[in-house]
Amino acid sequence: MGPLARYVGDEQEFHRTLWRRTPAVLHPRTPLTEMLTVAELDRILDAGLLTTPYATLVHEDGPVPEERYCSPRVVLGGIDNRYVDAKAVRRLIGEEGATLLLRYVDQWHAGVRELADGLAECFQRQVEAFFFLTPPGTQGRPVHRDDADVLAVQMHGSKRWRVYPGPPDGNWQPERVDGDPGDPLLDVVLRQGEVLYVPRGFAHVAEATGESASAHLSFTVREAGSAHLYAVLEALLLGGDGLPARPNDDAALTGATNDLITHFRRTLTSLTPQELVRLARGAMRREQHTGEGSLSALLGRSGCEEEVER
After folding, report:
1. Is residue 228 included in any domain, yes or no?
2. What one-character DSSP code corresponds to residue 67?
C-alpha cells in the first residue's frame, strides 16, 4: 500500500472527488496512530533538547510568551533562551488550557519524516508535518485559512472540526478569518484513527472534545504561488552564459544586450506553463533525507565491541 493510500484509501477516487474540491473525513483500514504517541512526546520533552520555534504554546487568541515555558541555558559560554522546559509546558497545558504546537516534525522525527517524504512523492509537492496537543474543551487557533491542503490524522482523543468554504479568488491570505465565516460545509467530530482532509484555503477551526486531551498530526501539502513562479522564471532567464561585466564600448554593450535577449527568447519559447509549474513545485521541495550509513558503520563493528568490553 502506497503512502497516500494509507490515509485516503482509493487514491484515484480521492483525486477525482475530493482533491481541491471539498473537505471529508476518511477512514483508513490501518489507522496510523503510533507514529508519534503521547508517551513518546513525553520522552521527547523530558530529553530537554526541544527548542522554539519547533515547539511552542498557543492559545486561541495568540501565542504564549516564550519566557513562560523556556528556560535559559549556558551553551558554549553564551546564554540560550530557546530551550523548552517540560515542567512549564505541562503546567500551562493543564492549568491554562494552552495547546502544544510542534512545528516541522518531519525535520526532527525519523518516522514522521519517512511518511512526509512518501506523501511528497505522491503529490509531487512539498509536504511538512505539524503536531497539536490540545486540552479538552479548548481550541488552539481561531478560524483561519492555511496555504496548504491538510491531512489531519487524529492520534489520540477526539476533536470537533468545522470547515467553511474556500476563498473567493486567488488574492486571499493564509491568516485568521474575522467575522462570521457562514455555515460550515463540514461539522464533524474526528476520532482516533480517522483522517480529515481540508482543501487549501478552506477556512476551519478545531476544538478538543471529550474528557481527555486531543492530539493530531497534520500533513500540509504546499502549493506553488506567484512568488515561486517568479523566482524560478528569474533563475531560468538569468541562468544562461554569463555576459561580460563591463562591455568596453557601444558595440560590445549592444552585442551583450542582443545575446541576453536571444537567451530570453530561446528560454521562453521552449518553456510551457506546465513545465514552469512543475519546476516551481520541485524548487519548493526540500532535499530528501537519505541515510548515508550510520555511526555504527563508521566506527566499525569491532570498534563497537571493543567499547562495550571496556
Report:
1. no
2. G
| pLDDT attached to residue 291 | 54
Whether residues 19 and 153 share a domain: the answer is yes
pLDDT band at 301 (very low <50, low <70, confident <90, very high): low
CATH number at residue 77: 2.60.120.650
Q: Nearest-CA neighbor of 219 among 12, 13, 26, 21?
A: 26
Tell whether 176 and 273 lie within a shared domain: no
The number of angstroms, rounded, from the C-alpha of 109 to the middle of its chain's C-alpha atoms is 13
Cα 38 to Cα 6, 94, 121: the distances in Å are 21, 15, 28
Residue-level length of the chain:
310
pTM of the model as a whole: 0.87
Among residues 237, 241, 239, 236, which one has the least CA distance to residue 278? 236
Complete DSSP assignment for 166-232 = --SSTT--SSB--S---S-SEEEEEETT-EEEE-TT--EEEEEESSS-EEEEEEEEE---HHHHHHH
Residues 6+ apart with CB under 8 A from 19: 149, 199
pLDDT band for position 300 (cuts 50, 70, 90):
low
- Interior angle at CA 122, CA 116 and CA 125, nearest 5: 70
> For residue 284, what are the domain limits?
233-310
Domain count of the chain?
2
CA distance 279 to 267: 14
Supply the pLDDT for residue 185: 96
- Quick one: which of 232, 206, 231 has its CA closest to 218? 206
Task: Answer yes or no: is pLDDT of 308 > 60.
Answer: no
Give the C-alpha separation, 290 to 307, whole Å: 28
- 50 and 13 part of one domain: yes
> Does residue 148 sit in helix, strand or coil?
strand
- 32: helix, coil or strand? coil
**Amino acid at position 135, single letter:** P
Residues paired with residue 191 on neighbouring β-strands, in sequence order: 158
222, 247, 266: which is the final residue of a domain? 222
